[in-house]
Amino acid sequence: MTTSFAPLIAAIGDLVPHPANVRSNSPETYDTENIAHLKASIAVLGLLQPLLVQRIDGKYAVLAGGRRHAALKELVADKAAKGFTAKTKIDCRLVPEDCDVTTALSLAENITQAPMNAIDEFEAFARMMEVDGQTPETIAKTFGTTVAAVKGRLRYGLIHPDIRAAARGKVITLDTMKAFAEHPSQEAQREVFEALTKDGGYLQAYTVRQALKSRGVQVSDDIGAFVRADYEARGGAVAADLLEEHSVLEDAALVETILLEKLGAAAEEARIKLGFAWADAMVRYDYATMADYGRVYPGPIEPDEAAQKRIDEITAELEKLQLEMEDEGLEDGAYNALYERVDALEEEARDLQEAYSAEDLARSGVIASWQGGQITLHVGLVRPEDTVKEEGARGSSASPTGEEAPDAGEITYPASLAEDLKTERAMALGAAMALHPEATLDLTLFKLVSDVLASGISVTQAIKIDARKEYRSHAKMDEIDETSLEQVAAAHDALDLSWLDEARAPADQFAAFRALKAGEKAKLVAYATASTTQSCFARDRSRDSLMHAFEIEIMPDIRAHWTPNAALFNRFKKAWLLKILGEDLGLAQEAVTLASSSKKEIVAFCDKLFAEPFATLTDAQRAAVAAWCPPMMQTAGIAFDEAEPAAETPEPDSEVSHAA
What we know:
Blueprint: E1 6-11, E2 15-17, H1 36-45, E3 51-56, E4 59-64, H2 66-77, E5 89-95, H3 102-111, H4 118-130, H5 136-143, H6 147-157, H7 161-168, H8 174-179, H9 186-197, H10 205-213, E6 217-218, H11 222-233, E7 238-239, E8 248-249, H12 252-274, E9 278-282, H13 287-290, E10 294-295, E11 299-300, H14 305-325, H15 332-353, E12 354-355, H16 358-363, E13 364-371, E14 374-382, H17 415-434, H18 437-453, H19 483-493, H20 506-514, H21 518-530, H22 545-554, H23 566-569, H24 574-584, H25 588-594, H26 599-611, H27 619-627, H28 655-659
């Protein structure tokens, strides 16, 4: 059947929807945001395709072209649109009133038009600019889209013709073709394309991007942004892209030269400031090469009067800042500013209390490298030929303990945090003791009798058997993980306290106590002893072999009684948190992703991770999360001697030890 439709000129105000339009049950099709491009195009170019209409009840019902009709109505309602009113005439084609295939006509209008090939679309945008002389701004206005979106299409339309032809012929994929837009130079694109296809290999988008990286550095790359001003000042060639961030600094050698100069200047500045003997620079820190270098560390010094005054000022300001940071309503920007101030103050305080020796300064230096989008200084390095080989010598690669000295970027625990962690560990140990009444009863009785019957030297200072509850000092008791508290509370609820009645005479209470079953007595003694645990880190076998062995028995894993939480993570530096995620927990990708986040966001991530390990974790990652804690807190871990130096450990029978 062949049907001809007569031309018709109709006013926009005389048009109504047709019930047979196949899109009539999808009103979202006509939403403002879905027809914005069409509205913009009609406003600039006019209606390019007539509407298919049928006369119904004195009106012209739009059988095909409902989206164009919706766009026309919006133009009429838009006061800013010129030349569109309800009386504006538009071209239509009239379907006879007796037509019996109206639905088929509507469907055909909507489905017989083949979607435009993506490459054709990209090239059409490019021709609009190159042939028609339009700008990205005018093209965007025509199609009701953003300038950035237009530029994105234009970039693909301006890829070298040979590469576009390969994509059109299915020799390479569309994504592979798009990868060539990473470099705006068609000549560079062609050379890379020919080099990668000369052996007939399968071309991938990733391979293309990697190859184009050797042809220069994008200005949006961290190195490109860092050197760009100097690069352009020296006349370095720039391949301009429609999207500025994809423009390329083409002289890679000049980029590296400038970067090394800047790194060298930073290293020299640090050398002068700190008093080192030499300074050097490298683009990427080569850990394999640097493994042969030694490293020296600053040692404690006695601050003079002026330094001590400044330390006191810093301490007071840090306390004030800490209170401000506890405000939960604090905006991220304000919080990060406070955090940076705290970090700077803590570093200043350390510098006032630590210094390198003259001998170390005379043979060590600083290397500046580019890491994580910024200059990183590696200080206190000692060249292999200058490394002191004597065992335990100050500044050698080996520490006085015989263990490898920590990297300057390793996590360290400030004294205030270390003291609080000792308290939290003591509470966890107390919970473990309360949950192991028989073992704790034996320990209590052993200490009680041995302290009296032995030579007078206490077998351990870890607990007190003098009927006095231990006072535990902590900066923020209300922020401690509640696991140990809940376990101790449960142990308390299980106690038989029927004998404890202050209205009765002590002798009567004692008689009732003696009548208890042995197991109930063990629980009571264990609970009482657990309340005396001292602030502590993991025991050193050589210092307290009794408690070392006892803790391994009753608390082999502190995580059964304690979980890291936001309060702890909030006291860590951002770099420490990323290091823990990437190195300790095996979440390297997450650490990279979070590197650009605020510390507050990273703390929240860690808090959720430890509260309930994510389902997406591998078995190894899950095990790492389940086991992680500061190393000096884990019974089965390495004793953290640095946090609890032997020089500060009181003698067993000293007055200080009994007051600790």
